[in-house]
Amino acid sequence: MDNFFLLLYVIPISFLFFKLFKIVDQKRHQSCYILDYQCYKPSDDRKLNTEFSGEIMKRNKNLGLNEYKFLLKAIVSSGIGEQTYAPRMVFLGREICPPYEDGISEMDEFFVDSIDKVLTRSNVSPSEIDVLVLNVSMLSSVPSLGARIINRYKTREDIKVYNLTGMGCSASLISINIIENIFKTRKNLNALVVASESLTPNWYPGNDRSMILANCLFRSGGCAILLTNKLSLQHRAMFKLKCLVRTHHGSRDEAYGCCMQKEDEQGRIGFYLGKTLPKAATRAFIDNLKEISPKILPLQELLRFTIASFRRRMSQNPSKTGGGIPVINLKTGVDHFCIHTGGKAVIDGIGQSLSLSEYDLEPSRMTLHRFGNTSASSLWYVLGYTEAKERLKKGDKVFMISFGAGFKCNSCLWEVMRDLGDRNAWDDCIDSYPPGTLANPFMEKYGWINNEDPSTFKLPG
């Protein structure tokens, strides 16, 4: 009889421990780790210096003096230097009507360089890749670009492939989110994220100011990221994903229409950047920050901010409660910031909103100066700069935030798994950064345009 009652206790307790073990084991296998990443550095013959930028503008017969003045002001204040890269078709003089093959070749150059390097460095063969997520927003091919990668690297037949288009500059974090969700349902997987943008079919040859601005900001680049949820590879991991939050304001007409690919009045396709873009970005950023802050900040900072906000709302004279609007202090839970290099104004705005120091903003500013806005891969060049400067130590937290057409704001937090110091795409120049000045020579070279008379203006050469 005693043995019978003992069994009544042992069986449910054993079952409880078994279920608990299954839950813990499942959680352990759901972790998302980065094994390695590689940013793309095109060849030096694709560098877009001041002299050649002027030649490109001269080739555009649709531009007048007012457009030249606008472009000069935009590029001088952009924060972009002379070391950025343009697609090869620009150097071949084919930007007005590039052939389809130019866009494919642009992507192939990136694939061969970055994917080869990330697989070789991590000692992972193509046959070990279980999931491929590729995002190139503005170039669609048949077969898909994902299929081109599969054909080149001869991956397994059961590989799961996802091709993302139209996601814009925030696409790489969307790709990471897809991988994260897949990792929650299956164990022992390796995944490859490939993020880039094809500028070849999207170089705007017209004179609409809201569309020629994109030519000033966007540059060639890309990144390949190898991720895993295998516990056996945990000791080799560089980063562990702590949380990821996506915010989408596409239901708001103003946000939806502020950033899109479209035709101008003459039917020329380009990328439109509207005047409502800063407002849309601010609203999306605030909503995203509201959701991710409780997930990444210590309790005492959340309490401080809540109390300060409550006191301000209750006070009839807010100026007596401690000055301006309370600001959440992200630096209580974050050590490093990777801000999307959408432009100098974007970096300045986020820095001011979050009370970040110049040290915090340095990786984003230097990335904008050296590589420009490389769309979905920009965040990884910023991360590469931080690593190349040997700032990433085990246990540090890295916060990424990006914006994209739609309009979207996506952010995530990574934990550094070991001390890092690889130079990645920054290898040839990191020792010269930050430079003494970020001023580019465009005003010195072309400032005379501002003194020209529209009635007599004639572009030399």
Walkthrough of the structure:
The protein is α/β, with parallel strands linked by helices and 461 residues long. It has a single domain (32-297, 333-451), classed as Peroxisomal Thiolase, Chain A, domain 1 (3-Layer(aba) Sandwich), CATH 3.40.47.10. It is 41% helix and 16% strand. The chain has helices at 2-29, 50-59, 65-76, 88-91, 100-122, 145-153, 171-183, 209-217, 253-256, 277-296, 299-314, 344-353, 358-371, 378-388, 442-446, and strands at 33-39, 131-136, 160-164, 190-196, 222-228, 239-248, 259-263, 269-273, 336-339, 397-404, 408-416. Strand 10 (397-404) and strand 11 (408-416) form a beta hairpin. Helix 12 (344-353) runs antiparallel to helix 13 and helix 13 crosses helix 14 (378-388). It is globular and about 105 Å long.
Descriptive terms for the model:
single chain; 461 residues; alpha/beta; Peroxisomal Thiolase, Chain A, domain 1; nine-stranded mixed sheet; two-stranded antiparallel ribbon; 41% helix
Quick rundown:
This protein has helices spanning 2-29, 50-59, 65-76, 88-91, 100-122, 145-153, 171-183, 209-217, 253-256, 277-296, 299-314, 344-353, 358-371, 378-388, 442-446; strands spanning 33-39, 131-136, 160-164, 190-196, 222-228, 239-248, 259-263, 269-273, 336-339, 397-404, 408-416. The protein has 461 residues and is α/β, with parallel strands linked by helices.
